[in-house]
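Listing S7. Sequence submitted for prediction.
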Amino acid sequence: MLTGIALRMPESDIWVLAEAAWLHDVGKCAVAPEILDKPAELEEEEVEEVQRHVEYGYHMLVRMDNISPVVREAVYEHHENMDGTGYPRGLAGEEISLYARIIHIADVYDALTSRRCYKDAMCSAEAVAYLQSEADKMFDGAILQIFIEKVVGSFVDNTYEK
């Protein structure tokens, strides 16, 4: 939401962004826990199953009349990359919804800075370095810069890093 605010999105759009962000990984509930929590490297079929979470989530949300098409699309697109190498459709640049481009950055930052059964957490500086190395490839570079300044900077400035 902080990124949306910094982008001067209208309040109604910020609430749509929040809803899509809350729901972005809902499809993971259809992926077997033994795959999601596997402490070793995933096999190719397991990676493909994890990637299907965007489709699972989209199809779950389609059945809910109270979820807007914009939210469903953001959930479906949140692993698309700016250079077209993401999934599920290989969208690129502006073909990817603004909501999905914002969520993608926040999702990867969260994944990098969170401890998981298969990896240790990175510190914010390492995560930011990785994100910056993927600017305009995985991530929208302009949105990434705002995320780093307004979101990550606020955590570091408030000593959450110490």
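Caption to Listing S7: primary sequence and predicted structure tokens for the chain studied. DSSP finds nine helices and no strands in the chain. The chain has a mean pLDDT of 94.
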